[in-house]
Design brief:
- By secondary structure, this protein is mainly β.
- The chain folds into 2 domains: 1-35, no CATH class; 40-300, Pectate Lyase C-like (3 Solenoid).
- Helix content is 4%, strand content 44%.
- The chain contains 1 helix and 30 strands.
- Strands 5-6-9-12-15-18-21-24-28-30 form a 10-stranded parallel sheet, covered by helices on one side.
Amino acid sequence: MTLTYGQSTITAAHIERHPNNLFVPYDLMDLKTAIRPKLTADLMTYVSPSGNNSNDGLSARTPKLTVQNVIDTASKTYDFNGFHCIINCAAGTYTVGAAFVNKPLGGTGQFDWVVQGNETTPSNVVFNVANGNCFVAAYGAGVQIRGVRMLATGTPTVYNSIGYGILAFGSAYVDTYACDFGACGHTHVNAADGSIVNFASTNYRISGGSQYHAVATGSGRVLNVVTTVTVSAAVTFGGAFVCATTGGNVVIYSNTFTNPGNVSGKRYSAESCGNIQVNGNSATYLPGSVAGTSVTGGNYY
């Protein structure tokens, strides 16, 4: 068999059957110009702690094991055509995190990916990652994370950013809904390099400590407005509850903090032209046992 592509004749030795029964030359299989099926509705996928990454992940009966494998497979297989990939997470504990990098083909950057746990009881769907991160969004990726509990161990180094519940950088956008933030080695939520992490005006829980609850750096923004934050256990933040640095912005006001006395550590740290906007609330508005600080051009207002 031969296939003519432009001025080239490709023999059978260069042709492989595509999973969707299309013949695609090897030299096109990883290019955006390759023929891909276009989504005509949101893509429903499934993962489970008892799943297997060799499964197709397209039904609750055939779940994959990791969110990362869903991302890798869907990114290489489909033109999103403006629709979303919904990743339904069965109850249990997942020990591998996920990185969403760039927009997928046909993606909009507005929540191309949705990680769906249990918004009523997020502690039923746990991401517990050793020496790593639960979720990373980078370079224009758009993600919703809904109803999961996050724990991550590890201390970041110059060459290895680990210990984050959510780490967003490179103009990524992340919404969180009804999540539970457990113990993390460094930070529950970090928005860096023009990225935004938005708590989406939904109630959420803090059940473990970290160096920081929320950090905005390098023109990143953390938005946390009109939420009820329940601190369900005694927790310590070694750095501060919130931190804005190097031009980062944390917007946090009109919140209700339940059990704020459970929080130990500095209330806030505004530094290096970072801004923490509390809409005129007092210096004791944020939870903590130590007064906050504003230094080197940082602002709390």
